[in-house]
Structures are given as structure tokens and as C-alpha cells.
Amino acid sequence: MDPSKPLIVQSDRTVLLEAHSPAYAEARDAISPFTELEKSPEHIHTYRVTPLSVWNAAATGLACDAMVEALERYAKYPVPSSVRQEIEGWVSRYGRVRLETHDGIMMLVSEDAAVLAEISRSKLMEPYLRGEVADGRVPVDPAYRGHVKQALIRVGYPVEDLAGYVTGGPLDVALRNGGGERPPVELRPYQETSVAAFWQGGTVRGGSGVIVLPCGAGKTVVGMGVMARCRTKTLVLTTNTIAVRQWRDELLDKTDLTADDVGEYTGETKDVKSVTIATYQILTYRRARTDKFVHFDLFRRNDWGLIVYDEVHLLPAPVFRITAEIQATRRLGLTATLVREDGKEEDVFSLIGPKRFDVPWKVLEGQGWIATAECFEVRVAMPDEMRMEYALANSRTKFRLASENERKTGVVRRLVARHAEDQVLVIGQYIGQLEMLALVLDAPLIMGKTPTKERQVLYDKFRRGELTLLLVSKVGNFAVDLPDASVLIQVSGTYGSRQEEAQRLGRILRPKSGGEIAMFYSVVSRDTRDQDFAGNRQLFLTEQGYSYRIVDEHEIA
Question: Which of 49, 117, 271, 286 could covalently link to 13 via disulfide, CB atoms 3.0 to 4.6 Å apart?
């Protein structure tokens, strides 16, 4: 035993990390690429090694020996041999089976005859096979390429897809090379690395997968870098109309594309061009629950050679289904976190592709690419007159009562006064709570029913500094370009959503012109479901190296 080391690795593949160890940060960064953080209370954080976490790490090029060595380097006790064996087994399964095309026929290929025999007898695979195993190959139906990949990951053999892609319609696109008063657009080193990791020299080993970067680190620019490599007609899918127009503006500003090249496909406009930007909402629209999806033909309408899935962790289930049918098109997922609250990380891996690039947020912070941030959890007592109502309520009502705790209002007012010289966002889940705060703070509120034009006006005013305080509902979680926001006050959230917490912190991570520290406040009701869920929400950010300083409401002067 070495008491100076911070890890305890257990045979059930849980990994316990002492949060107060001097080697905590080093150990956290070493194990995060191939483990999943499950909980992070004050003293001991619990990670778990899973097949998917190991397969994603293997897809980025992390070797089995490197994973095991990271555990051994920081472990107090010897790493159980069973953990090493599990990691070795999972790594060996990634790519043991390949999808290839031979003489125009799509095949599952493996040098391991026993594995092919096992697969060929699987009930999950039976609908997609089109022949018998021979010479290390078995034919599959190319129309079900995505379904094959989904089935194989459930069987336990994540397939390496080397079957190739359609070229797509040509598109002459490049990043802006300067001219006039505008400097050329150059990818940052980590952006260049992420584009190269996706592209893989244009071979069949690239062309699909997910790039994971924090908000403010330039995921949109990475998407443009990939477009410049692919040079093909591109469909971009994103979360809302505001995000569509921000993508359009960024493309026109940072590439040599013109307005004639870029189309918008939303509830307001349906303009299909060489680069078309659409919302998930319009693609999943249908007149009735039993009707067909009206706009799914967009996926096949314009000879796309690349589809970009912005905020891929939010991909709706119907888009997963259509994506399973268009596996011959290159697919790029962009996200700040691969955490999905519906547990469909395996479908992202199968249908969009494995994680191709990831970098710890704190690494980019240290390099100055994103702002330094301090996080606070401000705990507020429930009023005495509400305690009995809370005690007798069901679980869902308890969470809402605690989230809308009226004593949060005074804390928010004091925080806003403390940051009167800063650009402040107040964000929450419940419209009634936000409307009350907007009235008290005499500030505008953006919510779902706010017209797009009005949202754009308010965002522009905030961006220019004409407006220093803005309230937003959860519509502000995603794809909102507010580069000058330096303070975010969260008054309520979506239960224990880790990805929402990451997105909200990301709203203030763009580097500040004066180098100011970004401030993130989460206001929660003490000893309630609100506090319990707050702990879960913070998991992803804890994994990235952010710690929450817990303060009492009376400490906010």
C-alpha cells in the first residue's frame, strides 16, 4: 500500500479517487479519458470503467497498456488482475469485426472465425445477414448498415466501419484567407488536431465520429474546418432557429461561401442550398403522432456528402432512426459533453461514430483558449411556512417547490448588485419564477414563446453591452452566442441534468477581453431535492476539474 497515492481500484471496476490528495488533479486527468464519473461528494469521487468508456478511449488511439498504467500509477493498492483483463478484453473487441466493401458487396470481416460464428448465430444480427460465413466474411444488407452497427455493439463487438462513403455533391469551400481589413481564419492547434482526427487523411478510417470540446472553444469553427476538408454539400442540424442563423453568420464570416451557397430550413424558411442549416425541431415535425415525419426527405434531397450534428448529445430519437439509414454519408457530431440523459450514448457511438477527439476543459483554460471560471453553490433555506407543504408533497412537487423557493429572489438581487459592472445572465427552468424575477430585477426575459426577431434583438444588445442583465429560460442552454457574458446565475434546472450544467457553464467560458474570471452561481434550496439534484448536475464539471465552493445565502452581501 502507498498512502500517498489517491486511487483505490476495485474488482467491480469502480475507481475511488480522494478529492483532497495532492495528486488528485493529475489522477483525475489520467483516468477521465476511459472512465465515467458516477458521483462526486466532498471527499471521495467514484468513477467506473465501462465497455463504452473504454471503446471511446480506444477509438481516440488510447492503448490498453496506457489505461492500465494510469490506474497502476495512482493506485494505493495493486490493481486487481480482473480489471486489467476486462480492459484488455474490451479493447480487443473494438475493431475485431470490420465492415468492408468487396466487389460492391458489404461484408462483416474478421480474422477470428469464432467471433464471426457467434455473430452469425445472434438473434440481433439475423435480420441483416445475407449469406453464410466464408473465408472470414459474411455479407450484410447495406440498407441496414446502421442497424448492423447498433446490433453489434449490443452483442459486444463494436464494429470498425471501413465500408466507405459517398462523395456527395462538390462544394468549393475554404476558410477565409484574409483580404481587406479581415485577417485570415486559422484553426487553433487543438482545432486542427480534432479536424485531422475526424478526417484521417480522407481514408475510410475517418469520416464519422464526435468531437468533444467545451462551449466557447470553437466547435463551429471545427465544423467549418471539416467542411473545408470534405469539400462537399453539407447539411447542418442544430437546436433552434437562433442557432441556425448564428451558423449562417459564422459561415459567411469565416469561409469563402456566399449567401447564395447557404440556406435555412426552419419553421419560418425552407431554402435548400449547397449548405443547408436545419433545426431538429423541423425535422421531427409531424401533423399527428401516427403520421410520417414531413421533412425527413431533406436527408436525401441534395446529394449531401457531410452531415453535421450540432449539440449531438440532444439528438432526438427519430433523427437517430433516419441516421441509421444514411450511414454512407460522412457524419460529424459536435458537443461539449457526450453525456445523454436518456442513456443513448451507445447509439451516438454506433450511428454518428466514436469519440474522435476530447480535451479536458482545464487544459484549454490553462492555455488561455477559454476563460477561467469559479463555481459557487449558494444554499438557501426554505421558508418556515413552506416546510410542511414541502414535507407532504410528492417527489415531483417537492422539486418544483424547492426550485421556486421565494427566498432565492433576495440572493439573486444581491448577486446582480454585486456584479453591476458585468454582463449577467440569469437562467432557470420555471417560467413563473423567471417572470417574477424579471419584474423584480426590471430586466427582459427570453423564453420559448419569445419571437425569434425579439430574441435576436435582445441577444445583439447584450452582445454589444447595451444590455447588461438578461434572463433566459432553458432556451438559453444551447447554441447561444453570448461572448461577453461573464456571470451566470442559475436559479433552477432540469432535475439532475449533467449536460445542462455543462452547457450553462459554457455560456460564460469565452475568453474575456480583460482577462476577467467568469463566475457561475447555482442557487439551491438547502436540505431539499433541489440540493440533491444539484450534486448530480455537477458531476460532469467535477470531472473536468471544476469545484463548487458551497456558501450560505447570508454570505452573499
Answer: 49
Is 191 exposed, middle or buried, given 0-12, 13-18 or 19+ CB atoms closer than 10 A?
Answer: buried
Q: How many angstroms separate the CA atoms of 293 and 141, rounded?
A: 24
Q: pLDDT digit string (tens) for 211-225?
A: 998 888 899 999 999
Q: Write out 316-335 in H/E/C secondary structure.
A: CHHHHHHHCCCCCCEEEEEE
Please give the Cα distance from 133 to 295 (Å, whole number): 39
Tell me the C-alpha distance between 68 and 7, whole Å: 13
- Identify the CATH homologous superfamily for domain 366-555: P-loop containing nucleotide triphosphate hydrolases (3.40.50.300)
Alpha helices (H) in 124-264, listed in sequence order: 145-155, 189-199, 219-230, 241-254
Does the pLDDT of residue 69 top 90, yes or no?
A: yes
Alpha helices in 39-173 (DSSP H): 51-59, 64-74, 81-93, 113-120, 145-155
Q: What does the pLDDT look like over 111-145, one tens digit per residue?
A: 999 999 999 899 999 999 998 989 999 999 999 99
Q: How many CA atoms lie within 13 A of 274 on its CB side?
A: 15
Rounded-to-integer distance, Cα 268 and Cα 282, Å: 10
Paired with 263 in beta bridges are 276
Rounded CA separation 138/128 (Å): 10
Domain positions in the chain:
7-93, 98-161, 189-359, 366-555
CATH number of 189-359: 3.40.50.300
Bridge partners for 265 per DSSP: 270, 278
Quick one: which of 431, 546, 423 has its CA closest to 485?
423
Handedness of CA 484, 489, 492, 498 (dihedral sign): positive
Q: Is the pTM above the cut of 0.70?
A: yes
The CA distance from 124 to 544, in Å, is 37
Of 250, 318, 311, nearest to 285 by C-alpha is: 318
- Rounded to an integer, the average pLDDT of 498-514 is 78
| Gap between the terminal Cα atoms of the chain | 47
Grid cell in block for residue 329: 454519408
- Exposed, middle or buried by CB within 10 Å (0-12, 13-18, 19+), for 420? exposed
Q: Is 351 exposed, middle or buried (CB count within 10 Å of its CB: 0-12, 13-18, 19+)?
A: buried
Dump pLDDT digits (tens) for 360-418: 888 888 888 888 888 999 999 999 988 899 889 998 899 899 999 999 999 999 999 99
**Is 80 exceeded by the pLDDT of residue 289?**
no
What would the pLDDT profile of 157-172 be if each residue is shown by its tens digit? 999 999 999 999 999 9
Residue 507's φ and ψ, nearest 5 degrees, are -60, -20
pLDDT of residue 286: 81
Please state the separation of Cα 312 from the chain's center in Å: 6
Q: How are strands ordered across the β-sheet holding 234-238?
A: 262-265, 275-279, 234-238, 306-310, 330-335, 208-212, 355-358
Confidence grade of residue 179 (pLDDT, cut at 50, 70, 90): low
Residues 269, 17: Cα–Cα separation, whole Å: 51
